[in-house]
Amino acid sequence: MAKMTVEGYLSAFDVVDSDNDMLMRGAFNKSIQERGPKSQGNRKIAFLRGHNTDKPIGKFLELYEDEIGLKYVAQMSQSTLGKDTLMLIQEGILNEHSIGYMPMADKEKYNGKFNEVKEVMLFEGSVLTFGSNGDTPVVNIKSSPELREKQSVSLAARMDKITKLIRKGSGLTDEMFNLLEIELFQIKSSYESLITEPRSTQKNEPIIDISNISLI
Questions:
Q1: Per residue in 82-130, pLDDT tens?
Q2: Rounded (10°) angle between helices 145-168 and 80-90
């Protein structure tokens, strides 16, 4: 049975989200130390689907801050929900994240424009369709050869759809052309990953990198 893991960002620093909050560097350190995957506590930070505590989809193997934001590596559950979620991530349908947290101090207004959040108690990280912070993509997937093959088929289908739209030509607005350009960038990145990413040295565990950009 292949070990299926996902890597991405639950939150990004220096970005004002849809709640008018900006998470600052260091905001997650205490939560990671006390309830992270390497902590001794029993109630660890949960990995969920859509903030639903009844829908755990796996467990965090790594959770840490880097220069971009709160990064994670998680092992997906072998449950139906875990496998279905992995497939949606593999197909690029789910590609954003969000977090459930409680600020540990009053939010500080910065120039009266947005809230600086300097420390939080982090409860969970979720995979979902649209997060409050669009700069929280999936960046890496380790999957079985079967999922790798399905991704190739999915990319070919997406390319075929775009080709038909371009051939049709009429009725395409500037906004639609911009969206098609973004879609082509995503497909290009995914194909390059399939071609250039070195395979794992362990049998039946190839690596697939997906460096998608967010549409919002």
A1: 999 988 888 788 888 888 888 887 666 666 678 888 899 999 999 987 7
A2: 40
Residue 95 C-beta-side C-alpha neighbours within 13 Å: 18
Q: What is the CB neighbour count within 10 angstroms for residue 118?
A: 16
Q: If residue 122 lies in a helix (H) or strand (E), which one and from where to where?
A: strand 120-128
User: pTM above 0.85?
Assistant: no
Cβ-contact 65, 25 below 8 angstroms: yes
Instruction: State the Cα–Cα distance between residues 119 and 121, nearest whole angstrom.
Output: 7
Shortest CA distance to 60 belongs to which of 13, 125, 105?
125
Assigned fold of 5-140: Serine Protease, Human Cytomegalovirus Protease; Chain A (3.20.16)
Both tokens of residue 148? Answer: 């790798």
Nearest alpha-carbon partner for 159 in 130, 128, 190? 190
Give the C-alpha separation, 64 to 51, whole Å: 20
Phi and psi based region of residue 62 (left: phi greater than 0; alpha: psi -120 to 50; beta: remaining): beta
In single-letter form, the type of residue at position 204 comes to N
Question: Closest Cα partner for 12 from 113, 131, 155, 182?
Answer: 131
Contact 178/162 with Cβ under 8 angstroms?
no
Neighbouring C-beta atoms of residue 162, cutoff 10 Å: 16
Q: Domain-by-domain residue ranges, the chain? A: 5-140, 145-195
